[in-house]
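Hi C.,

You asked whether I'd gotten around to modeling the 127-residue construct. I have! Everything is below, sequence then structure, no commentary in between.
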Amino acid sequence: QVQLVESGGGLVQAGGSLRLSCAASVGTFSMYAMAWFRQARGKEREFVGAIKWNGGSPTYADSVKGRFAISRDNAKNTVYLQMNSLKPEDTAVYYCARDRREYYSYISQSEGSYDYWGQGTQVTVSS
């Protein structure tokens, strides 16, 4: 059983930065693309960004492009989400998720492509 544990959320003022981490419990982490999603209160969960299994070609939602950056450290079984220039509309619970396909070459923005999810971490951006 794979466990994903997010950390790093909190309260920040608009324009500030946060870095989220997602640590995986198993050593096969490096075989899978990893994604970040978020869900604001009263809204559906949405794709934020994802990174391929080998760290290549991160993909981002238009709403965060240029402000957020995803990276991974396969030696530490950890994926990161660096969030800069935060806006109040970035307030949400942020989830990391693992792609269900090993060594897959394409990034999916669909929730259905991800089989393991973390419990989420709250990010609140005040105006």
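If it helps when you're writing up: The radius of gyration is 13 Å.

Thanks,
B.
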